[in-house]
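seq:
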Amino acid sequence: MVKATIGDLLDGQLDGHEDTRECIIYVVRDGDIVLYIGKAIRVIERLRSHLGSGTWGWTGTSQLGELIKANLPVARTWQIELMTGEDCLLALENCTGYKYLTGPDGIGYLLLKSTFLENGMRLEERLTATNVEELECELIRAYHPCLNSACNLEPTPLPGHYQIPWNNLSDPAGDAVAEWLMPKKKVQRRRKKNQE
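struct:
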């Protein structure tokens, strides 16, 4: 696992960092508060794209990027954990209680579920270090990051001490953000309905 800060990312200290080449998952946190978990083949480039730069094809900043920008300079101290598949398995073992095992082929996995069938056979549900999509989802389920919506039934609310840039776009029910993303006619119908 490679540990760094948002400041390291902004200052270019992670560019070409040899240890990041095998990393497939990134976790952005502020101490114990997990803000976002994501996956990428090139994690540094993907993190930069959250801020509106890089070559990922993203045309603006993401919600994570907006939160970082709104909370500078303090956000420079937020931590980034860049994880390999194996790092993810070990992190999940520590926080979920799943059992880490090594198969006869020497490859590690987490035993998610083991069921004995009526015929005496055992059926196992395993999570391996190469299953990136499922690793990301399991980490999100385990850590409940503030900004992830996929795989996250109970996101942690953002603490009140953060400057939240999208607050000026939304009301407590989130209607204004939803309207901002909707086509104009749908917004007009929704506003009319709310006024009645």
